[in-house]
Design goal:
Blueprint (H helix, E strand, L loop, with lengths): L1 E5 L7 E7 L5 E8 L5 E7 L5 E10 L8 E10 L7
Antiparallel strand pairs: 1-4, 2-5, 3-4, 5-6
């Protein structure tokens, strides 16, 4: 398990959520946005296989309509646990 902490943005945009490019490897299992603008996402390994995934975080201005834009990308490599036997 990894906790991704995103600090408040200086441009008044708010974090809106995280997405994984490979949910079979990494899944965002928790999301919290604090009152000061800090966001926390809990990322978990979803299975027993290894590979690479990108976790992206999006932000947008709170009072404007429209889709949020990706403003942060975390590149992750997942290594499976060693199996006995």
């Amino acid at each position: 398990m990894v906790t991704l902490t995103l600090r408040p943005r200086p441009d008044d945009k708010r974090w809106t959520g995280v997405l994984s490019s490979a949910p079979a490897l990494v899944v965002a299992s928790g999301w919290r946005l604090d009152g000061d603008g800090t966001a926390r996402a809990t990322l978990r390994c979803a299975g027993t296989r290894g590979g690479a995934a990108e976790v992206t975080a999006a932000a947008r201005e709170p009072d404007l309509a429209g889709a949020a834009r990706t403003v942060f990308t975390l590149h992750m490599t997942v290594v499976p646990y060693a199996q006995e036997g």
